[in-house]
Amino acid sequence: MTAQLLIYETVIPLSAARHRGCAVEMARNYGFSSKTNSVPLMAVEFPAAASEYAIVFAGTKDNVMPAVILGVRDSENLFLSADSKWDGKYVPAFLRRYPFVFSTSSDGERFVLCIDEDYSGFNRDGRGQKLFDDDNKPTQYVQNILTFLQEYQTQFNRTQAFCNKVRELDLLEPMQAQVELPSGEKLSLAGFMAVNREKLKALSGEKLAELAKTDELELLYLHLQSMRNFQALPSRLAVVKGAAPPAVEPGDAAEAESGDRLNGARASA
Question: What integer is the mean pLDDT of 149-174?
């Protein structure tokens, strides 16, 4: 599976000194994700994502995070149309926050808002949403992005706690997915983990009740249910991209940051 931060190229802390007069023009395309076959997923997104993506656990046994599978080959995203629109009903929050991201300050005590200056919509001509006003203060657009990223970080921490519990219960096992194309060619995808259903069922009633009380049992079964979406990947490999428009037009980052919840108000699950 590809590196989680592959979509970011030149991440620079946002500042009035460097970015005064700069703007972000959202082109409603996700071409920046064309070379990644998986992206992280927050636990809160499971209900919206499970109907069309295979949700897996990626990383090591000591440090795992959920992810959605976007392709079966390296550097392949099957959820993009020919014109780089998102060919799916739900867009993971990891992609909706681009080109912005938090980095940790040098002292490790705070988060710093950064932008990928290599994003095609980033410009110094004032096109689109301005980043700083005439008084060198962050615009409302930037404030909305901060709110979105703060919620993302909160959900990231909650997802880490969920994954730690799954790891401590020893529910995960390495998995390999086999995908057969209409041509008969067989492809395999490895490097991820899934919950062992038998281990889950063997948990004590006390542990199961604890998981149910926190809604984490529902998350585990959403994950298991989502694995059937591997079966839909061959049709995406076989289809000619651009033959049909996406089922739902994803909004741009300005919309995502100004009104949507992290789990995607526009999702149609």
Answer: 96
57 inside domain: yes
Q: For the chain, give the mean pLDDT.
A: 85
Helix (H) or strand (E) holding 95: helix 93-96
- Could you give phi then psi for residue 139, rounded to 5 degrees? -75, 170
Token pair of 207 as six digits: 């542990």
Answer yes or no: is pLDDT of 44 > 90.
Answer: yes
Looking at this protein, which amino acid is placed at residue 46?
Answer: F
Least Cα distance to 49 among 63, 67, 73 occurs for 67
Residue 266 resides in a domain:
no
Q: Which tokens go with 228?
A: 């059937």
Domain count, the chain: 1
Q: Taking a C-beta distance cutoff of 8 angstroms, is the pair 33, 39 a contact? A: yes
Per the domain annotation, does 243 fall within a domain?
no
Range of the domain at 16: 11-238
250 part of a folded domain: no
Instruction: Give Cα 70 distance to the centre of its chain.
Output: 10
Number of H helices, E strands in the chain: 9, 11
CA angle 91, 94, 96 (to 5 degrees): 55
Q: How far is residue 72's CA from residue 236's CA, in Å, rounded to a whole number?
A: 10
Contact 129, 141 (CB under 8 A): yes
